[in-house]
């Protein structure tokens, strides 16, 4: 007869939460808060694409040349720390959390992340991290529900008007130009939605949450409730 340990009998099943959406819809803030509240790990997949872009820029790779990007893609070692209260990202052992947020990286990341060889490597890394998260994980990005974790327990697609998203982003940087921020967001979303390989898209079975008129606390409560309902129905 098969024996089951006491720990295995009592341990709750790991829960996988996929949160996708365009830039500035609140994916990172929401995902971190939900993960912290539910005791889950957290993975910012955008940070991984930013990290590989930063490495390419630092290593003289022509980021307008897809073939050059593809050839170099496996060289950097990217490590993500998944504690929602202190997420980390290193490239070849170096802390990259600051440099990956520069304007230069933001303006180049869509081109680098569109290269299929980059996506294949980063997707594999993301799946390994999700598999190893003992209690479960909240993974946020653009293609998590459609491609990276199509069997996620719950998929959320966050949206917000371009005006609300631009206002949120402008609020982070003193003196920033609201119209220019809005145009930059729209341009990056168009590039991310228009690429051939796993574009930004809502999975057919994702729940869409429009955050335009919701506070961050309301969005977090909404997602925590949806996760709870899904787990209760299991
Ligand atoms: N519901 C909300 N109401 C008001 N501000 C919010 C809300 N959600 C997030 N924010 C703020 O908007 C900004 C962008 O949020 P966040 O970084 O979480 O978005 P994101 O979708 O992860 O963006 P990106 O994809 O560009 O990384 C942050 O300053 C955050 O504090
Ligand atoms: N799953 C993902 C996550 C991110 N990207 C790309 C596209 C984004 O413009 C960029 C930066 O993401 P952010 O830090 O703004 O969330 O990374 C992707 O292609 N797939």
TrEMBL record:
<protein>
    <recommendedName>
        <fullName>Cytidylate kinase</fullName>
        <ecNumber>2.7.4.25</ecNumber>
    </recommendedName>
</protein>
<dbReference type="GO" id="GO:0006220">
    <property type="term" value="P:pyrimidine nucleotide metabolic process"/>
</dbReference>
<keyword id="KW-0963">Cytoplasm</keyword>
<dbReference type="GO" id="GO:0005524">
    <property type="term" value="F:ATP binding"/>
</dbReference>
<feature type="domain" description="Cytidylate kinase">
    <location>
        <begin position="17"/>
        <end position="227"/>
    </location>
</feature>
<dbReference type="Pfam" id="PF02224">
    <property type="entry name" value="Cytidylate_kin"/>
</dbReference>
<dbReference type="InterPro" id="IPR003136">
    <property type="entry name" value="Cytidylate_kin"/>
</dbReference>
<dbReference type="InterPro" id="IPR011994">
    <property type="entry name" value="Cytidylate_kinase_dom"/>
</dbReference>
<feature type="binding site">
    <location>
        <begin position="21"/>
        <end position="29"/>
    </location>
    <ligand>
        <name>ATP</name>
    </ligand>
</feature>
<dbReference type="InterPro" id="IPR027417">
    <property type="entry name" value="P-loop_NTPase"/>
</dbReference>
<keyword id="KW-0418">Kinase</keyword>
<dbReference type="GO" id="GO:0005829">
    <property type="term" value="C:cytosol"/>
</dbReference>
<dbReference type="GO" id="GO:0015949">
    <property type="term" value="P:nucleobase-containing small molecule interconversion"/>
</dbReference>
<dbReference type="GO" id="GO:0036431">
    <property type="term" value="F:dCMP kinase activity"/>
</dbReference>
<keyword id="KW-0067">ATP-binding</keyword>
<keyword id="KW-0547">Nucleotide-binding</keyword>
<comment type="similarity">
    <text>Belongs to the cytidylate kinase family. Type 1 subfamily.</text>
</comment>
<keyword id="KW-0808">Transferase</keyword>
């Amino acid at each position: 007869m098969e024996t089951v340990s006491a720990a295995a009998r009592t341990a709750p099943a790991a829960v996988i939460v996929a949160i996708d959406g365009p830039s500035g819809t609140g994916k990172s803030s929401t995902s971190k808060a939900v993960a912290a509240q539910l005791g889950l790990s957290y993975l910012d997949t955008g940070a991984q694409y930013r990290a590989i872009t930063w490495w390419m820029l630092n290593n003289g790779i022509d980021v307008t040349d897809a073939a050059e990007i593809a050839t170099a893609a496996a060289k950097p070692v990217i490590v993500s720390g998944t504690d929602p209260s202190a997420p980390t990202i290193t490239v070849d052992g170096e802390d990259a959390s600051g440099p990956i947020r520069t304007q230069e990286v933001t303006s180049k990341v869509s081109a680098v992340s569109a290269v299929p060889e980059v996506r294949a490597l980063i997707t594999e890394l993301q799946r390994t991290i999700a598999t190893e998260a003992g209690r479960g994980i909240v993974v946020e990005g653009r293609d998590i529900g459609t491609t990276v974790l199509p069997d996620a327990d719950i998929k959320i697609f966050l949206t917000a008007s371009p005006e609300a998203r631009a206002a949120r982003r402008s609020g982070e940087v003193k003196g920033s130009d609201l119209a220019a921020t809005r145009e930059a967001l729209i341009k990056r979303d168009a590039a991310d939605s228009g690429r051939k390989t796993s574009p930004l898209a809502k999975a057919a079975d994702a729940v869409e949450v429009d955050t335009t008129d919701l506070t961050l606390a309301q969005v977090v409560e909404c997602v925590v409730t949806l996760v709870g309902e899904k787990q209760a129905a299991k």
